[in-house]
Design brief:
Four copies of one chain form a homotetramer. The first copy, chain A, is of the alpha/beta class. Helix content of chain A is about 40%, strand content about 15%. Chain A has 14 helices and twelve strands.
Amino acid sequence: MSDVKPFLSDNAAPVHPKVWEAMRASDRADNPYDGDALSAQLDERFSDLFGRECAALWVATGTAANCLALSTMVQPHGGVVCHEEAHIEVDEGGAPGFYLHGAKLMLCADGHGGEGAKLTPDQIAAHIDPIRDDVHQVQPHAIAITQASEYGRCYSRAELEALSAFAKSRGLGLHMDGARFANAAAFLGGSAKEAAYGVDSLAFGFIKNGAMSAEAVVLFDPEQASLAKYRRKRAGHLQCKGRYLAAQILAMLDGDLWLANAAHANAAAGEIASGCGERLMHPVEANELFVTLSPEERDALRAQDFAFYDWGADAARFVTAWDTREEHAAALGKAIASL
Amino acid sequence: MSDVKPFLSDNAAPVHPKVWEAMRASDRADNPYDGDALSAQLDERFSDLFGRECAALWVATGTAANCLALSTMVQPHGGVVCHEEAHIEVDEGGAPGFYLHGAKLMLCADGHGGEGAKLTPDQIAAHIDPIRDDVHQVQPHAIAITQASEYGRCYSRAELEALSAFAKSRGLGLHMDGARFANAAAFLGGSAKEAAYGVDSLAFGFIKNGAMSAEAVVLFDPEQASLAKYRRKRAGHLQCKGRYLAAQILAMLDGDLWLANAAHANAAAGEIASGCGERLMHPVEANELFVTLSPEERDALRAQDFAFYDWGADAARFVTAWDTREEHAAALGKAIASL
Amino acid sequence: MSDVKPFLSDNAAPVHPKVWEAMRASDRADNPYDGDALSAQLDERFSDLFGRECAALWVATGTAANCLALSTMVQPHGGVVCHEEAHIEVDEGGAPGFYLHGAKLMLCADGHGGEGAKLTPDQIAAHIDPIRDDVHQVQPHAIAITQASEYGRCYSRAELEALSAFAKSRGLGLHMDGARFANAAAFLGGSAKEAAYGVDSLAFGFIKNGAMSAEAVVLFDPEQASLAKYRRKRAGHLQCKGRYLAAQILAMLDGDLWLANAAHANAAAGEIASGCGERLMHPVEANELFVTLSPEERDALRAQDFAFYDWGADAARFVTAWDTREEHAAALGKAIASL
Amino acid sequence: MSDVKPFLSDNAAPVHPKVWEAMRASDRADNPYDGDALSAQLDERFSDLFGRECAALWVATGTAANCLALSTMVQPHGGVVCHEEAHIEVDEGGAPGFYLHGAKLMLCADGHGGEGAKLTPDQIAAHIDPIRDDVHQVQPHAIAITQASEYGRCYSRAELEALSAFAKSRGLGLHMDGARFANAAAFLGGSAKEAAYGVDSLAFGFIKNGAMSAEAVVLFDPEQASLAKYRRKRAGHLQCKGRYLAAQILAMLDGDLWLANAAHANAAAGEIASGCGERLMHPVEANELFVTLSPEERDALRAQDFAFYDWGADAARFVTAWDTREEHAAALGKAIASL
């Protein structure tokens, strides 16, 4: 396997050495549960990062992070507006139905200004305003967006402002799925604050970006945070040895390792993109590339040891990670350009 | 803190060096999800250990392990018979209500031959037979027992045979909460097979015994196993980098590290017990001691740097672990004997 | 069957003639659903009756009424404090688990001043205060009491004031199961307002008291009412031809038929009680009697055509209804006195 | 209101005189609950009607009937394939999410041979086969079809055979929403058996067709039936005085009143259809008409006292019922023809 140039998934990337170090360093804790000294630092560290008061809880997966956050704002009889290709709709095995006790995902397609699986206020309004107050129809309680989106697109601060204002106008919560939040923040200039502007909650992903098993649920409303703590325990996500999860996250925050790792992955994606030209199905703003490639072309690339997934019949998806080697990215860009 | 002699909780124990090693060694995997090469070994390894066909899934907590297993045998309108002090009833923050969608925990107290939070067929029959087929009352679908029990008592093979036969006679599943299964197996002679005789599922705990974040759900019915896979994903417990969890479990199984660790903890508990005499509230069969101690006596012990929890007004709980130092155990036994 | 003197259940009573009349009179409605002219009157009619603003929704069963009301104040991760013999715990087939999405019933036994399945603040405090804010334990969100209680006991205004103040002090909702609310109100002097003093919601029963298929969920908080409307639809309890349910309830309210019917049943129960002496297990305050009777004595009564249920091995339960014939009640009282 | 010619909804129709009679006649029952003598007849009566063994339970609404039936074949982690305009998706306020504990509605659009909200095997296969056995995606457990469909179209015996065979081939249950099953059966030649060919369960509607508050859940699998009984109680749908619901259904079955009522409504719809020509958006096979009509044309009809709902911007929906007066239908047909 030594020759493989891996672009299958950022989940395949190893754990970052600094994360390993931090985990080893926390082998003994004063308190066995999340009251441990490391977990206790999270609220303050994230409040500093986002420049506003928040609470932060570790959980083992992005699915749990998204669902716990949503469960604090969506009642079982309500709904969550999201894109029809949102990860919570298509890739979480029905977890939102479980965590939200049967609440409904109310799906928007691209259009009304939305593209690349990004949502706009107009899109959402067209979907929910006609059914307002109709007791026969599920009413929305929240909006969920993905930063970066399922097609690697990022919401600018202006777009987030508009969504946040719209959500408030309709009495809805606004949640951000940030499985690749770091990549989005890196693209948007490096400010976590701007990249999560106006949201009520954020599932801040670390696992694809160098951690092993810790994501953070960040809640900007103290009442939500209290609910989330009980819901986390109830979901079997309060780990006995939570200190090891806290250690991972703290290591990622230290010296902005999260941002450096993401910038590296984005740069590698950019390098590949420079060879793709018209083949790019979406602008490359984070660490994913969706590239039009015929079956023969894909075969040709695989013959050169590039590993990646097909994306439907006529395209492929390439994902870079914090450990992507520059020469692999450069080689892939060239190989595509030469097809 | 260097002088503390810790008996608060086995959750406070560090990760075993061999577990660390195994985790580090799995930094790169062929396949990002649970199809990885390490996770793929689990079914066979546990089938060997138990001497019968089974499937095994990692999850991050015992709460999730118990609830996932139960969810494969209990429908939302059914119930689970358990002891009124069972961990699933008193310490899991309502997780069974969540995972089982509102199914009912049907509580038995000690009596009818049961003691130390252990259940007997007579006890259960007295509870469930009178309401059989009454549509106004929740009907049981499964029985949950804890090995070792919440008071550190172990079910013998004969007791398990009786429970298993009873469960079958009533059409019920039989689940075993094995947060301290290793300690029970060590007490019972070292055979995993005997210690889990006749059960349909087992939550096999590793975290208290040297692992970091991996428990195993062991399912002895292949149909259950298929359900559990979907339910795990749906509960947000399918970790992207599951290879690190598989690695922990495999390290614990290698050379029966799980058993050696548990035997060490049990021996330490026995050492302490030898100093407790009449003070012992329950026979010591695993790694927990419940000891009658007045507030003044507890103060005296704490003044000698022993750390432990109160157990009600007139007792204390001591827990040993895989890393308990023999001199600490011996000192504690002596200190209690000298009170 | 013409000689049977029926004391099995008030559910066996027929529909009152005035209720039949009102149903027939509503054969055509302007609007097919609950926006119909009859349903639209309910809020105002109940607000008048209770002397405070409320909303009222019809549903087909007391189980649904209780559960819908509770669902507006209890989140899935919370709990409901109730008596261990409360109807919601022992006779509703797990409906609270369903409607509350796995929330927990937190059971109190008699004691701390409570008797006959009535709760007191002291009892509840002893149960819930020790676990306050413990994330491993389900936290209470509401208290549910039954008026009249499962043993036919009534809460006085003073008792309700104390419970209501206690609930507020702990941030809990207070729900009243009023399957026999009319009988309690009749006992307490005829004021619906006093009999439901301080509660946040009431399941006001009409079916046992002369209606066919309509109970009222009465909600004293407008926000609860809005939630309950969506939850009713979601539970399949929004009937197409709801006008026929509204008609039943309005007929029961007209001229205080509900109170007259209940007073009749209570008087019949009192007549029977006068023959029971020391045999009464609970003071008779409503329309149920629990009477110590040996198997032979019960046989003797049945030989005289009295129909009733056994209550355990050494007692019987007798229930009177709006249509109980005075001569039947008198005969039963005499028959018991003569045993 | 005397001049209104009502075509708003069959829910607005009154209760049929024979149903009233039957209800009055059941004022006293031996047994208060569903073990009453009337309810006990249902299984046999429906088995006769369908020519195969089945169990039948009354419930108060079609929503509850659909959801209870589905709950016997769909686990919480599974899905139900249905049309994107299916009543369970768009008009039941999220009830399937509640009753199925978060299972997913997997939506098909018209196409692959399907039209008028009818499903075909090809359509369903295209939707579900590509995700088979993918643990990240909800797997289907059942198919739900509507007879007559949401656009008044009927499934022929041949179409049902194909769907049933397909469902079996994929291991899926097949449920039929029969809110207007009687109208479909009347269109298909009058055989209940043919109109429900091959389904595992049927929500058989009576309320729109002359009953007051009783639909039947018909279950062709005895195990399903047992589950449904517990689920009905748990959903608060087991009515104390269920004998009145049984009476309604038995009255509808007696002398095939259900079929006569539906045939009347269908004939009235046919009469109207004869005046609609090209304006018909769907062939008229039951008692609903979807007719292209401009706002001005709708105003003109309303000025003539015809009552009906708009259907989007450029159409209207007319519904006939068992009590539709022939002269009203004829007048409507003529009025449309004259526009």
